[in-house]
Amino acid sequence: MVTDRPTTPPRQAAAQHPGVLPRSPLTPEQVKRIEVSRLKAKAIRDQREAETRKQSDSGNIQRSGSSLSAGQKRAYSAISTSNVPATLRDGRSTDPAKNRDFRPLDEIQPARNFTKFVEYDFSKMTDTKGGFLTAQDDPHNKALHAPNADEKPAHMTLKEWERHQLLRSLRDQKAGPFEPGLSVLKGKESKVCRECGSLEIDWKWDEIFGCAVCNACKEKVPEKYSLLTKTEAKEDYLLTDPELKDDELLPHLDRPNPHKSTWNNMMLYLRYQVEEYAFSKKWGSAEALDEEFAKRETEKKKRKEDKFKSKLQELKKRTRVEAYRRSRQAGGGGGEFGDDIGRGGKHTHVWGRTVENGDGVGVKSCVECGMEVEELEF
Prior knowledge:
mainly alpha; three-stranded antiparallel sheet; 10 helices; flat
């Protein structure tokens, strides 16, 4: 308590060293002045440190000698690299005050069951032909935020999504409520079947092929309205890829590939349109197409026979060399190739003129030993 404090100083202990007077205690006024001076010095030091940090943050740090006196050190914050932001693609993470715990890669982490096999799930990113970016990287980019037509929107229920898909398929096929209206008035705009004159035509075929025909006539006349694949059009009518890819020349209908869903879609063509183009424009007539087909088959057969003959000739050459080598190893027929065995001297061949054999290959033989050699003219 303050009231219990003695008004007079306490008695000092005896001096340890004789002749040395004991130090008198500090008065309350002296203690007050010391405390005030300490607080002033601390405030001055804090002010200088704040000024130094401000200069280092603004990038206007000057060399020692211009703002610092001789022998004075710079503050640690002036030379520290802890304030340098990390190199990240998302600029928002460079501000630790706002997004201290933000990590861009956390948004593309795979599900927990797939962490052993997949490091990052790139299906959550969009390929904008300029690198893979998440939707949050650029909130104003329309390509990143474009809705995917094959995925169910978040605001739709499953029943609403199934109904939306059904309506979209009916709209593409122009069936059901999207089928064009029928009119009994015989005007120029009304379309009828080209075979029977019915008003109930297939609007999908009319849109793609430009052919107004009903479903009943398609089944009755398959020689005109059956569909051909791209391979059949190329092999049977000798059409080329550029001709088949031209929609103005030969329109086609795309269908999913029945052999494998991941393969390219089938391109189906209308038979009478293909025949009309092949007979009238491409080859001139059906007889000319047959002649061209027979010509190509003959050339293909000839190339196959020539290839077989060339391989047969190579096989004959290898067989002769192997037969001679086996006879030498077995001990039959002495001497080296070209030696005259009977007279002990080296034989010099005297070749006759070249004669073609039954295979059309030129052969010349030695007059003395009868050895034959084939010649190939280039």
